[in-house]
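Below is one such record:
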Amino acid sequence: MNSSPRYSRCILRFVVFSSLLGGATLTAMPPRQHLLTGVVQSFDSPTQTLNLASVRPGLPSAVLIQPKRTRLREDGLPATLQQLTAAGPVRIYYRTELGRPVATEVSWRSATKKT
């Protein structure tokens, strides 16, 4: 007769453990963000791709710019793509999505601030 409460406690522990484990696997982490520094070489409007020169070996030399998702910053303030093409060294935070590097933020310093 004592085996019934022990059996029900064992099942209860299993249910609680499996629900905790199942809940942990359902929460997904966002893609990892990486840092890339380089010099702007060109911007290809049809493909929305920013090409960089002077990039360390092993890192991507082009990143995808998505107007609604990529933040552009000049001296910490919002900027436009027209200001970016005239920029020199840039700092790009990107994520790899579907095998392509997609920029989440592109920031640079203006020519007047460098002095």
